[in-house]
Amino acid sequence: MEFLAVFFLAVVVEGVTEHIKQGFPAISEKTGVIMLITWILGIGGCLAFGIDMFELLHIQSRIPFAGEVITGIAIARGANYMYDLIGKFTDGGSNGRRS
User: Fold this and answer.
1) Interior/surface letters 46-82, b for 16+ CB within 10 angstroms, e for the rest
2) With 70 as the cut, is the pLDDT of residue 33 above it?
3) CA–CA separation, 16 vs 58, rounded Å?
4) CA distances to 11, 32, 80 from 83, in Å
5) Is pLDDT above 70 for 99?
6) CA–CA dist 73, 5 (Å, integer)
7) 9 phi and psi, to 5 degrees?
């Protein structure tokens, strides 16, 4: 169920980014700006809500917030990427295989 929070935040980040691109068409052509926006949203969301995929996998870091920052960067890649990544770590009832 915790992985659902990761996926949900990825969907929110992707949705907000799309709205920003639609509202500001000049920005949508600038890949670097869009990447920065998604990083800010992803990392900010993970820090705000304490979402850390490493912690969910019982992997502890010696650096505070490292897991949340890395999770935020992964979330910035988008919901499809996160769905595939989460699928690698969970069974999902299909033994890791999708039909």
Assistant:
1) beeeebbbeebeeeeeeeeeebbbbbbebbbbbbeeb
2) yes
3) 30
4) 10, 24, 5
5) no
6) 15
7) -65, -35
CB 5 within 8 A of CB 45: no
pLDDT band at 93 (very low <50, low <70, confident <90, very high): very low
Instruction: State phi, psi for 77 to the nearest 5 degrees.
Output: -70, -25
User: Binning pLDDT at 50, 70 and 90, where does residue 2 land?
Assistant: confident
Calpha distance 19→17 (Å, rounded): 5
How far is it, in rounded angstroms, from Cα 75 to Cα 82?
6
